[in-house]
Amino acid sequence: MITKDELQELFASTETYRIERTTSTTDKDKFGEAVCAFANDMPDSGKPGYLLVGVRNDGSLNGLKASDELLQKFAALRSDGNILPIPSIAVDSFSFPDGDVIVVEVQPSDQPPVRYRGRTWIRIGPRRDIASPAEETMLAERKARNFTTFDARPCFDATLDDLDLDLFQHDYLPKAVDAEVLAADDRPIERKLESLRFFNSAYGLPTNAAILLFGKDPRRFFPGAYVQYVSFGGRDKAATILNEHPFKGPIVRMLAQVDLFIETTIARKRPVFVTALREETRTDYPKGAIRELVMNAIMHRDYQGNAPIHFYQYADRLEIVNHGGLYGRARPENFPNVSDYRNPIIAEAMKVLGYVNCYNRGINMVQDELDANGNGKAEFSFRLITAFEAKVALAGNRLSDKLPESGTMDGTIDGTLALRIVSVIEKEPSVTMDQLSEKLSVARRTLVRYMNILQENKRIKRVGGKRFGHWEVVE
To answer: What is the CATH number that goes with domain 399-473?
Structure first.
């Protein structure tokens, strides 16, 4: 960070490509554009740029008082999602007799072009402006050989013919780039892809990120690039498989499919009888929390492995296994307070598409939403070392305290089958014995014996008569 003596020298100097002064503390667009321009470092100086808040154009101070709230406001510019890729900034304040000065120091990005709300801003001498297509190309080419992450590397077995260019141009590009800029951009498709780090001009190849996001068949290059959903009738993999579905294809399309599936199948709402005259609506799993966990798995996984993301639903819980484990600075001891990105280009694309909101806040949101829905907090396991595992309990579920995973309950019936019976009843209180027998593939007389024992043990109860009554699970 700049020193106080160095800062005083900047007061007297004219504004250059490295300095911008302002007395405003409320013009968020102006601040975002300035940070974006400094991060792009158009002259390729390799030196930081400085936004000086509380300083007039003539170098005099306007008597600003730098509060903690103001400092946090400027620090939030880094990760509010409007500047992508995320810039590297430092914020500090300095006190002088005529007032305080807030300094926002911005380091040159190693992954230009950087955009603020879809526009690429640069410094041209003492002023900032929107980059021309030619200037964008210069920024993209500057770091073309700097493959810092897997998704930035060229896919050596692929060509442009392996990309669904309509998907890129019609579904993604309008969301990533400002409409006016897009309308004036007459560059060839390679340059447009390159400006978003989806094409490497040095090799003339699409990047791994491009194949994963827009590829006609991503699994041809990355066999594990899909999500495998399986629903089990019990509490372990030995139980009957009730449903399975693989989500395949380019990530841009797969995200919408997974999102809809979570809303209609995982987070479905159902009526639960409370009394003969009243019922409540319950959700087994809150959509927002499960959506965040699955999207995180897609975003952070190691695509060099051949295994898919496992999205497993058991009678009493969900399990999501993301192959790759924690990455970079993230460690079991600092999770979830410290995050790092194995696939920053894919993460940026998911932000552009609206599937990721705030960086490094998702897990806290997940825990709050699960707690509010009655699921309890998610459990995260690092015991697999090369994989990241998340477990979420069924809302209001206390069956783990009541029924064993296997073996017998009260020395009479199998605990796994008992759990399956209770799970169906909880979801369908009016289910008949014949329907239950068909769903569970169990003989009717066996069900009668199980139901009697479950009632004797006060695990379930019958409300009303045989014809118009219903079952209830005893909490």
So the answer is: 1.10.10.10
